[in-house]
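Annotated sample (chain length 248).
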Amino acid sequence: MQLLFLGTTGYHPNSKRDTACLMIPEMGLMLDAGTGIFRARDHLQTPQLDIFLTHAHLDHCVGLTFLFDVLHERDVNQVLVHAEPEKIDAISRHLFSPLLFPVKPPFQFCKLAQNKTLSHDCRLTHFPLEHPGGCVGYRLDFPSFSLAYVSDTSASVDAAYIEKIRGVDLLIHECYFADGSEDRAKLTGHSCMTPVSKVAKAARVGRLILVHMNPLSEAEDPVGMEKSRKIFPQVEMAYDGMSIELDV
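Output written by the structure step:
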């Protein structure tokens, strides 16, 4: 089973990366709907697509407006967008205001449920993250594999969400800034490299993949992973189009 990284930067796209969107095509599962969602068109495999949003900031949900083209002439009968009620309300009233986007694409909103059972005997749970406007992270537990997606938060070794991600085989975590930008990270609700590495170590995860980097940098390593490998060696940087095998 493949996990695809369709968009891996934050805030806005640059010439190398689009904004947040992950997909497991075999499950018809998507995490966030940033600008990278346009790539999903070539990977749709199931009659239903379930999109789970972490929050309502535009770099994570603006791709919902792309669904007309993503779904065009594809055999997808139903699209469900799962989010917290207040996020559903904000997106419905603002992003899909008739003055801004007059025709809503063919999807339905669903209130985000806890302990949701998905295909392949996968259990999906969510947990709160500290971020302006509110955000949730996700954990997926398969019979023989687990992963967590932590986007848009300020990493710290005393963060409550560490218990929610403890022991996962794969942690996908935001890392917007390199070390040295701690004040800006605190102001914007994002993370620097060393705290993310310490979170991975404290949670005893198997592998760390970084996403949601600052789009002002198009370097292959904009956050200084070599320094942080001294804390947590099993770290790598995601890129748009990256695919990894999930041993489920």
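Annotation: Residues 2-245 form a domain with the Metallo-beta-lactamase; Chain A fold (CATH 3.60.15.10).
Annotation: Residues 175 and 191 are 5 Å apart (CA to CA).
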